[in-house]
Amino acid sequence: MSSTKDGPAGELQAELERLRESQRQLKQHNAILLRLALAQQSEQGLEEKLQTFTKEVAQFLSTQRVAVRLFSSDRQRLRCHALYNRAAAEHTAEKDLLVGEYPTYIDSLQSARVIAAVDAMADLRTSEFAKSHLTPLGITSVLHVPIHVGGQLRGVLSCEHIGQQRSWDEADERFAVSVCDLVAASLATSDMRRAQGTMRALLESAAQGVIAVNEAGQITLVNSLIEKVFGYRREELLGTQFEKLIPEGLTGDTLEIQDGTLSRSSSEIGIGRYFTAQKKDGSIFPVEIALSFVKQDGEHLMLALLTDVTQRVAFERKLKQSEQLYRSVVEDLTDLISRCRPDGTRIFVNDAYCHYHGKSREELLGTAIWEHIPPRDRKKIRESFAKLTPHNPVNIYEHRVLRPDGKLALNEWLDRAIFDDAGVLHEIQSIGRDVTEQREAEARLREAQRLESIAVLASGIAHDFNNLLTPILIYSEGLSNYFADGSVESSQVLQILAAANRAKELVRQILTFGRKGQESRREPTAVAPIIHDTIQLVRASVPTHIDFKINIDTECGVVEADATELYQILSNLCTNACQAMPAGGTLTMSASEVMLQHTELPHGLYTQLIVQDTGAGISQENLDKIFDPFFTTKSLGEGTGLGLSVVHGTVTSLGGNIEVQSQIGKGTTFVVYLPCTDKQPVEGERSKLQQQLSSGDERILLVDDEQSVLESTQFMLQQLGYRVTSCSSANEALNHFSAHPEDYDMVLSDMTMPRTSGIELLRRIRELRAEVPVVLMTGFAGLLNEEELRRIGINEFLIKPINSQKLGSTIRHCLDPLATSKTKPPASPADCPKTSPAQVLIIDDDPLILRAMTKLLSSLGYSPFTANSLNEAFERLTSESIDAVLVDHHLGSEDGFESAGEIRNRAGGTPPLIIGMSGSGDLENADDYALDGCLVKPFSADQLRHLLERCGSTSSVR
Questions:
Q1: With CB atoms 3.0 to 4.6 Å apart as the test, which of 7, 67, 555, 581 could cross-link to 615 if both were Cys?
Q2: What is 654-665 written as a DSSP string?
Q3: Of all helices (H) and strands (E), which one includes residue 77?
């Protein structure tokens, strides 16, 4: 027999339990929906409401994750606005879902009431989430309900179950749909509030007053600007008649108010029509009104936008007054004013325009602007007209114009195009002016700036060049004392000195050209010796296929000039002549003394210099331009056009004249006239070198940051008998001087040094000992003038490079105020230290270096050998007993420094000294090599001798 539980009674009992559970769930369902409905009507924000919804749904459906995802404004993303995690009992954030990655899912949301997926991984509607969402989070079953607002899909309510798959019953779906209805209501409410807030913000931020009027003509809405402009409070205006603000002028014209009913009128309010408005205090002012009609909740409303145009009316009144002055103002302007049609026909011109073209207004109006414009410029103007558009109606350009006197002038024009409503060009208004003189002035200014840039560059180059010349002059003068007068060596040294001094004068001339140096020292100078020196230098630099014919009168005159100026004139003319004969020819130079009468130059005796070539000649067109700055017929890179310009300027400044004659195919002749003087020429440079040098035995503090200048100047001072303390910086010198200020008789300092200048060093030395003489040296000839140097306390100043004669006399002038300088004979060869005939191997791949080093080592008493490669050096080392090796760093593809160890091993007997030579100056890693010492090219004889002596460990090298 079946138990009661399994019989009909049991079935009834189970059904009763299911009904009770269903009733309980229904009550809970209704209770939750009631709470959510109340939450939806609360003043909470949308995000807070959505968090309440997701939490309630998660707890009621016992699902782990519930989220509300809404479409972004561009509908490209599903953005999570609320996600409740029931296990963690908190709301968390989640990244956006890209709509484009889930097309099937989105299509299902559009058409389905719900998406209830028991197996979310297999369900086609949700399987697109498998890789990115379901699998990583362990989601097995989902219930998604679309959220629609106003017929548009706005988002989705997502219920996501984790663990064993779960089926969703009808009650679950109904509950989720009901919640989505509440969410949609919340979204609609939020949208409405947002729209209302936006409308309020727009009304309050509007730059115009806004008034809404109903069919009875009553004001139903005003913004804050209306309150501010009219002086009423909002409450005072709402419900009152519109005529309260606009008492007259509007009724019957635009609005028809009959029996309290508002309707449209056939007439319209146009822009620029003003009405009279009345404020609360009774004052009136003009307003501009724009009307529109809308229907809201079955009621017709008129919206009026009111603009206070008080300032505009006042401005227009002034504008009308100014229009009366317009013509007189336009006519009084010196600028050229015209208006023309697009085809160039003039329709207006002012008096200045008429005067400029020398015609009356009647003659110009109706004619085309092209008649005064050269054909090549007409295309430019037409192109300018074509560029004018409604968006870019202004253009500025220049063109040439033919003046009544037949000359071409340059005009600058500013065009403004006027277009009609259809965008068609109607006319062009133009304002122009003659800028011929302005453009010429600008060109002259650019030329001046270019020359100024050249001057600045020349000053910088001269500073470094003077530093390079200093050791050349010093060591050459030192060598001149070791050779007998008349010997070949003495003659060679004097040639070096002459060339170096000429280079020194050239640098000074460059600085003078750039207004950076002192004025040229013009003194009586014999012309003949200068010509002979110039010819020697020019001969060495020109091809052998150019012949020289020289006819120099030894009595060709003495002129008041700087020797460098004469060299500059002659060398430029000779160089130009040689360049005019690339295929060969004859250069003829002659000089004589002539008497000029009945010429542009004053009557008197002149030196006549003639330089003639047999080159291609100069065309008549270019002959008038050859003395213009930067004019040249040479190709790019072959000349600057400055040579003849400088020659012309120098000859003119000397009171002379230069003439040129040329014929195509037959050559060119330059004739220079320089006024002669009856004064005797000053003593030549060679005689000066042989003068007795001023000397002494005082203690001198020498300061210079350039090592080669420091060493060579110290050598020169020691040759003159002085005791020298040399310092490479101002701070080092100051430390020496402050320790024993009374030990020094003079300070000789460079002016331009890093960190502390020579002038600042002077100031500090004067604080320690005011009376000590200070001599300043500089390679910048024009940085300070003599008067300014005296004012700041400098006793004397010297321009680099310095010779021993100038240095000695300057020092004695400072140390012996009464000019009672004592002299000390220069050191003789017998006084110089003797070196043993040690054997030195020179390894260098440069033949010039090998020859120069051979001569230098021989003059120092060493026995030199040479090798131009390491292989050749190794052969020398095995065949000769070498005491020292001078090896270059870079020997083609070989590294001489790295081979130092092998060089030492290859030598037989006692290992030689290894001294490295570098032309790059980079010796930071010299300690990494097996070297006994290093020299940086170029180096002096003393540097080489001292290094050999310091490094030598045997008497043979010392």
A1: 581
A2: TT-EEEEEEETT
A3: strand 77-85
Query: Which stretches does DSSP call E strand in 94-166?
Result: 97-98, 115-117, 139-149, 152-162
Residue 508: both structure tokens together: 């000074």
Residues 913, 957 contacting (CB under 8 angstroms): yes
Contact 288, 306 (CB under 8 A): yes
| Main-chain dihedrals φ then ψ at residue 308, nearest 5 degrees | -75, 115
Our CA dihedral for 51, 57, 63, 68, rounded to 10 degrees, sits at -50
Averaged pLDDT for residues 25-39: 64
- Please tell me the distance from the alpha carbon of residue 158 to that of residue 632, in angstroms, as a whole number: 86
Residue 523 pLDDT grade (very low, low, confident, very high; cuts 50, 70, 90): confident
Residue 274 confidence (pLDDT) = 80
Cβ atoms < 10 Å from Cβ of 107: 11
Query: From CA 661, how far away is CA 617, in angstroms rounded?
Result: 9
Q: What distance in Å separates the CA atoms of residue 73 and residue 738, rounded to the nearest whole number? A: 81
The DSSP secondary structure of 760-787, one letter per residue, reads HHHHHHHHH-TTS-EEEEES-TTSS-HH
CB neighbours of residue 277 within 10 Å: 23
Structure tokens at 927: 């300690």
Which band of pLDDT confidence, cut at 50, 70 and 90, is reported for residue 823? Answer: very low
Taking a C-beta distance cutoff of 8 angstroms, is the pair 370, 378 a contact?
A: yes
Instruction: List pLDDT tens digits, range 455-489.
Output: 667 666 766 777 677 777 777 777 776 776 666 67
Closest CA to 486 of 692, 716, 686: 686
Q: Is 728 helix (H, G, I), strand (E, B) or coil?
A: coil
Cα-flanking dihedrals φ and ψ of residue 702, to 5°? -105, 130
Q: Mean pLDDT for the chain?
A: 79
614 or 272: which carries more pLDDT confidence?
614
State the CB neighbour count (10 A cutoff) for residue 20: 10
For 755, the token pair is 């960190």
For residue 594, the model assigns a pLDDT of 92
Phi and psi at 649, nearest 5°, equal -65, -40
Q: Give the whole-number percent of the chain exceeding pLDDT 70.
A: 76
pTM assigned to the model: 0.31
Cβ-defined contacts of 948-954 (< 8 Å, 24+): 948/835, 948/838, 948/840, 948/862, 948/884, 948/913, 948/915, 949/835, 951/884, 951/913, 951/915, 952/838, 952/883, 952/884, 952/913, 953/913, 954/883, 954/910
CA distance 316 to 832: 101
- CB atoms under 10 Å from CB of 351, counted, come to 16
- In sequence order, what DSSP letters do the residues of 233-263 get, joined into one string? -HHHHTTSBGGGTS-SSSBTTTEEEETTEEE
- Answer yes or no: is pLDDT of 694 > 70: no
CA distance 430 to 399: 13
pLDDT tens digits along 254-281:
444 444 344 544 344 545 578 888 999 9
Tens digit of pLDDT for each residue in 729-751?
Answer: 999 999 999 998 898 999 999 88
**Do 522 and 561 contact (CB within 8 A), yes or no?**
yes
Check pLDDT > 70 for residue 825: no
In whole angstroms, give the CA distance from residue 841 to residue 881: 10
Q: Residue 516 pLDDT > 50, yes or no?
A: no
d(CA 756, CA 737): 15
Cα separation, 786 vs 168, whole angstroms: 106
| Contact call for residues 458 and 510 (beta carbons, < 8 A) | yes
**How far is C-alpha 433 from the chain's CA centre?**
33
797 Cβ contact list (under 8 Å, min separation 6):
751, 775, 776, 777, 778, 784, 786, 789
Q: In this structure, what is the dihedral angle of CA atoms 747, 750, 751, 755, given to the nearest 10 degrees?
A: -100
| pLDDT value of position 794 | 83
Q: Quickly state the pLDDT bin for 931 (edges 50, 70, 90).
A: confident
Confidence at residue 836, expressed as pLDDT on a 0 to 100 scale: 43
